[in-house]
Design a protein that fits this description.
By secondary structure, this protein is of the alpha/beta class. Helix content is 44%, strand content 16%. It binds NADPH dihydro-nicotinamide-adenine-dinucleotide phosphate.
């Protein structure tokens, strides 16, 4: 809870795409938003303006999740005055290539943003949540982390790693009333997937369409707000039937 008395949701990677839809949905559910991003100030300012128009507070916080030092410097001072009730770890990148051509940079940039980033952020937040004896953590993984995807050995490894990390964390913090779950989207229309040709993916999707960010955000919102909640340590797909 923050100085306004409202609950706070920390949305990591909330400036664009799925994260933006999650931030807007949680704001509509009454949360003030700590919205983090890496460097797209314009997108972050636009999302903040949209949230503020609904009457909620939104703080934009730029830092690189791949850096422990930057993450700590950005979050620790804020945690002295407030504890987020909810944390959604959504930031992520893809650098696709077949393993035989993959550069060390393509491997490390993806793993450090998607997986190290989860550690770097959660390491700051979880202590405050443990002290508060409440919290909801939602980690955005991917179908690629559940089933593997050719051309995405780096991305699939990072997203599968998130599933393992979230399940282990769920075992550590469940007793303190901190619920940890994973959402695994399939193909969702965002900048990340803009270059994937629809005709290539549609035959794989039983619903015969790609998903919308709002469809991921609805599930995240449910996991963060539902009072009757016995869902913990689970991986829930939002994928139109792509993986089942
Ligand atoms: P976008 O590329 O649209 O947005 C990514 C967000 O993460 C932005 O807010 C971006 O900030 C932030 N970000 C990226 N790198 C860093 C970093 N090093 N430090 C801090 N913030 C960072 O992605 P999507 O909305 O498509 O995807 C969101 C999540 O959902 C990702 O984890 C992705 O892997 C996952 N996902 C997406 C799917 C899809 O089909 N789109 C499918 C399955 C999973 P900035 O704006 O400053 O760059």
């Amino acid at each position: 809870m923050g100085t306004t008395g409202n609950r706070i949701a920390l949305v990591v990677g909330g400036s664009r795409g799925i994260g933006r839809a999650i931030a807007l949905k949680l704001a509509a559910s009454g949360f003030d938003i700590w919205l983090t991003y890496k460097g797209n100030h314009e997108a972050a300012a636009s999302t903040r303006a949209e949230i503020e128009a609904t009457g909620r507070v939104c703080e934009t916080i730029p830092f690189d999740v791949a850096s422990f030092a930057e993450t700590e410097a950005a979050l620790l001072p804020r945690l002295e005055n407030a504890t987020p009730d909810v944390m959604v770890y959504n930031s992520g990148i893809a650098r696709d290539n077949l393993l035989m051509w993959m550069s060390p940079e393509e491997w490390h940039s993806v793993v450090s943003t998607n997986l190290d980033g989860f550690f770097n952020v959660t390491r700051q937040i979880v202590f405050a949540m443990l002290k508060a004896k409440r919290g909801r953590i939602v980690v955005i993984s991917s179908t690629s982390g559940q089933v593997g995807q050719a051309g995405q050995v780096n991305y699939s490894a990072s997203k599968a790693g998130l599933i393992g990390a979230a399940k282990a964390l769920a075992r550590e913090v469940g007793k303190k009333n901190i619920l940890v779950n994973v959402v695994a989207p399939g193909f969702i229309e965002t900048e990340m997937t803009a270059e994937i040709p629809a005709e290539q993916v549609l035959p794989l999707i039983p619903l015969n369409r790609v998903g919308r960010s709002e469809e991921v955000a609805s599930l995240v919102d449910f996991l963060c707000t539902e009072p009757n909640m016995y869902i913990h340590g689970q991986v829930i797909g939002v994928n139109g039937g792509l993986a089942m």
